[in-house]
Write a structure and sequence with these properties.
The protein is of the alpha+beta class. It has 4 helices and 4 strands, in the order E-E-H-H-H-H-E-E. Strand 3 and strand 4 form a beta hairpin.
């Protein structure tokens, strides 16, 4: 039996590091291994794997000022949706959008 660190078998190190370096987020790695994303974060830190910075995430741009001016019906709708049923938090090097109900998706709107 292999050595366990943060509840993750050490034999999974190569898999975890490979997935992470190829752009897979810790929560998806955790899903594949049946553990929590916090364990993956701790595991990566324990093995001196630096977290990605915003510059590392190719093609991902976040406009932190997007809702500063509400100048379209879509902005008003999504701001209201997030305020009423969810939140956006910055936690452990990532922005997380959470909405009530757990399985709701923001890919369409009636109107």
């Amino acid at each position: 039996m292999g050595k366990f660190i943060y509840g993750i078998c050490e034999k999974n190190k190569d898999f975890i590091v490979s997935e992470y370096r190829s752009g897979v987020v810790p929560s998806k790695i955790a899903d594949k291994l049946g553990c929590g994303s916090t364990a993956i974060h701790h595991f990566l830190k324990k093995h001196s794997i630096e977290p990605f910075t915003r510059e590392d995430r190719v093609g991902l741009e976040i406009d932190l000022d997007y809702f500063e001016v509400i100048d379209s019906p879509d902005k008003a709708y999504w701001l209201g949706f997030i305020v009423a049923d969810g939140c956006i938090v910055f936690e452990k090097y990532q922005y997380i959008l959470s909405v009530g109900g757990g399985n709701q998706r923001g890919n369409s709107r009636k109107g």
